[in-house]
Amino acid sequence: MIKQSLGISFFIWFMNLLKLFFPKGNIDRVIKALKSYITLSEESSSNPDQKMSAFLYPGITHKPWYESHEHNILNVVSNKLQQGFNDIENEWLAYVSSGCNIVSRFNASNLFTSLKEDDWKAYLLWKEGNFTQVGLSCFPKTVDILSKLEPFLYSFGYVEFYVMKPGVVLPLHTDNINTSLTCHLGIIVPENCGINVGNEARGWIKGKTLFFDDSFEHEAWNKSQTERVVLSFDLYHPELTKIEKTLLQLVLKNLNHTSEEYESNKIQEPKSQQKALDN
Question: What is the pLDDT of residue 49?
Fold first, then answer.
């Protein structure tokens, strides 16, 4: 929690002024979220299964899974990725056969005590509006496809390949913010792999997308004998207006939700005992 400051009070005053110029911008939602964050008012999710501890954004749909046909943005993202899938898959396979060893963005054992360092790896392609050198040099066609989706990418999120080793189970965890959705594109999907979000389990399909809200508790597993690979990235929630996205960038940066802070808060294991996986 943070105390109300003159800076935050001024920002709320400024947003109230903006409402006069952008009456359809849903700026009230930004104000309510900020007031709730500093405990000036109480906000709660419309879905009791949504579990967050940092920043609840009101007035948008709160549910675990989204279908591409529900929102034009999700449909555009899904179509672009599926149309370019062969290039994305071929670049990944070329990387694997090249013998190159890209360093994972994180050590899995630092995120989950039940995992070893290389059980779950992330190869970063994009961060805070910029493609990485690894992305540009090793995955140029993938970067070209993703560059067409940049207007939808969440400012404090990442684009990366996630690799999960055989036999690995990611424990139940959650994100702290509900202003984004996660997109997964299946690259290498063996049998007996899946992800459970908000008590609904689904499996990845090669060349197909999944959209989910990771502010709901979720867990994933690879009970096969081979690695599972997905392309993963965060999108702004499709119900946010352009002015909301701009204001949220300012608010979240002011509240220290930069990409580094975002990552340190992104993986939150619940205090309750981990659910048993029967899949």
Answer: 61
Residue 23: left (phi > 0), alpha (psi -120 to 50), or beta? Answer: alpha
Contact present, 45 and 57 (Cβ < 8 Å): no
Of 68, 140, 91, 122, give the one whose Cα is nearest residue 267. Answer: 122
b/e 95-104 (16+ beta carbons within 10 angstroms → b):
beeeeeeeeb
Question: Rounded distance, CA 86 to CA 88, Å?
Answer: 5
Residue 21, number of CB atoms within 10 A of its CB: 9
Residue 4 pLDDT more than 90? no
Contacts of residue 170, Cβ cutoff 8 Å, sequence gap at least 6: 112, 115, 120, 164, 219, 220, 221
Spatial distance between the Cα atoms of 15 and 29, rounded to a whole number of angstroms: 10
Ordered structural domains, the chain, with CATH: 65-238 (2.60.120.330)
For position 261, what pLDDT does the model report? 44
Q: Where do the H-state alpha helices sit in the chain?
A: 6-21, 27-37, 72-83, 85-98, 108-111, 133-138, 140-147, 242-254, 259-266
Residues 36 and 43: their CA atoms lie apart, in Å, by 6
Q: How confident is the model at residue 234 (pLDDT cuts 50, 70, 90)?
A: very high
pLDDT tens-digit profile of 49-81? 656 555 788 899 989 999 999 999 999 999 999
The alpha-helical segments, DSSP class H, found in 99-218 are 108-111, 133-138, 140-147
